[in-house]
Write a structure and sequence with these properties.
homodimer
Chain lengths: 206, 206
């Protein structure tokens, strides 16, 4: 199927199903019902069945899903079967914090390098990730065929940095700044706004 | 209006409008059109008008919104006018990284303390935030009237930790684990899954 046909929210959920299936497989489980899998993933069974319909025909009704082959099928649909190179732009407080976080690599992403304007940070690796001057970023992206970037620059520099990333071939940006980024069609931005998540929670506190 | 009447997504967007308005106010702007404000916030004008309708009657058609009074009105609706105490549970790689991130405080949240099971980490403050033994957590929550927690424990411990938080009066959890948390009604969970955000991006990379 064409990538554009798969809704963005379905891509998220398929990743979650894939993780649940990996966990089941690690625990020696061979088949799982749609009820159990949907509960583990925190979705309604109808949602699970709809999402899995994007993966083509699967299993026999009443027998549940075969864990290993469903995991492999989803992996093929998502294309998440090899380590993807990523760069990080802006090695300030949050950027440095993310470089120290080991979870990205575990899920198949390798932060090859970080870039910063501040010469004080440059050439001092953070958790084995080198920090280079941002002027060297275009060449690095090209040489290493990097397609994804994590953006942690100050909000005032966010759009400029995004423009530069896109001009040099970056197709996906994980945006940790509060800026609303404007990018050309074909470039995808996922935004994570940590403070906004807390703000939204605090609204519900009595 | 009742808090339950305001949709969760509208709460997010109101926070975004509030930030845009603060920025305008800092720059001496007194009035803003709904077109300009919606563009800055990355939403459609109709969405903005609908969201602002939750705040009651506002301004005069054709004159744009008064920046300062709209900001204050939204602040009152959201109730985000004072520093909210937060605790962090699990001071591993990601937890420590978040403690080093200064952005929460800037947005009105103070991480009072972190809790961990690992005695090696305990009593060594990270960026001035003390790290205590998790056995002292219930008393701390009660004494400091904490209502919000950031959860960064290993996925296998996530539900147990969430249960303990809820039992001690926590009403909002910012969940950084990949676990799907089950909590009683009245408790709100916002989940941030950093690796999942990258996975979802990587799907769209050609």
């Amino acid at each position: 199927m064409l990538k554009s046909e798969l809704p963005r929210k379905a891509v998220y959920r398929l990743s979650i199903y894939q993780r649940c299936l990996s966990l089941l497989q690690d625990n020696g489980v061979e088949r799982v019902s749609s009820e159990d899998l949907s509960k583990a993933a925190g979705v309604k069974p109808a949602q699970l069945r709809k999402d899995l319909s994007y993966c083509g025909p699967l299993g026999t009704r009443g027998l549940g899903y075969p864990v290993e082959s469903l995991r492999i099928t989803i992996e093929k649909v998502l294309g998440s079967h090899r380590l993807q190179p990523v760069i990080l732009v802006g090695a300030g407080n949050l950027g440095s914090a993310l470089l120290r976080y080991q979870g990205f690599r575990k899920e198949g992403f390798e932060i090859l390098a970080a870039f910063d304007q501040n010469p004080g940070k440059i050439k001092t690796p953070i958790e084995h990730t080198p920090v280079y001057d941002v002027v060297d970023m275009p060449a690095f992206i090209t040489e290493n065929k990097v397609k994804m970037a994590i953006l942690c620059v100050p909000v005032a520099n966010a759009q400029d940095a995004a423009n530069q990333l896109v001009q040099n071939g970056i197709q996906g940006i994980l945006n940790f700044t509060p800026a609303v980024l404007h990018v050309p069609e074909g470039v995808v931005v996922n935004s994570v706004d940590l403070a906004l998540e807390l703000e939204s929670l605090s609204y519900y506190i009595r």
